[in-house]
Design a protein that fits this description.
Blueprint (H helix, E strand, L loop, with lengths): L5 H12 L11 H6 L6 E6 L4 E6 L7 H11 L4 E3 L4 H6 L5 E7 L6 H14 L4 E7 L6 H6 L9 E6 L4 E6 L5 H12 L1
Parallel strand pairs: 3-5, 4-5
Antiparallel strand pairs: 1-2, 4-6, 6-7
Helix pairs in contact: 1-3, 5-7
């Protein structure tokens, strides 16, 4: 309600420190009503799964760091990189299918793999959550072992249906949009 409040100032600082995420401020009663937002609420709209997350700033002592953490935990991108922070948002996603690209981010082939993986993610927006899992991170070793993969079998695609833990794995030398699309369609059927 107050664009010059301390909370609004903290919000603008969080926005400046997170330039890759679009931020906006509104004190319009019509806008707040349209989205069902009460005053002093941060609402994060996720385009990947058409979901939203709200942070009520009236109940907590919210500062810039807490706002940034809220965004980092809850934002889901076309391809979300899995790490200890984003894992919470991934687990809370309304999408029941997750596709992981388990790969070495340091590989010279990584940029091209990601370009093709993102192209496939566009085709399944709102249906499958696309996740990048860097096989070099120690914190990701448990996920790699869950799919019973060894480093020598990477890169690999692993698709997972969250309600019943059903999953499938495909090792791949080259990622192609068509190959990813076929793998996803087969599993979803």
């Amino acid at each position: 309600q107050e664009p010059e409040s301390a909370e609004a100032s903290q919000f603008r600082l969080a926005a400046a420190r997170t330039p890759e995420v679009p931020f906006g401020v509104s004190s319009s009663p019509a806008v707040l009503s349209h989205y069902g937002v009460s005053a002093n609420t941060i609402t994060l709209f996720r385009r990947v799964d058409n979901d939203r997350r709200d942070l009520d700033m009236n109940n907590e002592d919210v500062d810039t760091e807490k706002m940034i953490r809220f965004v980092r935990i809850n934002e889901l991108r076309l391809v979300t990189e899995y790490d200890p922070v984003t894992s919470i948002g991934v687990m809370q996603s309304s999408l029941r299918f997750n596709l992981l690209l388990i790969t070495d981010k340091m590989s010279p082939k990584h940029p091209e793999r990601m370009r093709r993986f993102r192209a496939a993610a566009e085709l399944f927006k709102g249906k499958i959550l696309f996740i990048l899992l860097d096989s070099n991170l120690k914190s990701n070793e448990q996920v790699v072992s869950y799919f019973q993969l060894k480093k020598s079998q990477l890169p690999a695609l692993a698709i997972f249906h969250t309600p019943d833990d059903e999953h499938d794995v495909m090792t791949v030398d080259e990622i192609s949009t068509e190959r990813v699309q076929d793998f996803c369609n087969r599993f979803m059927q």
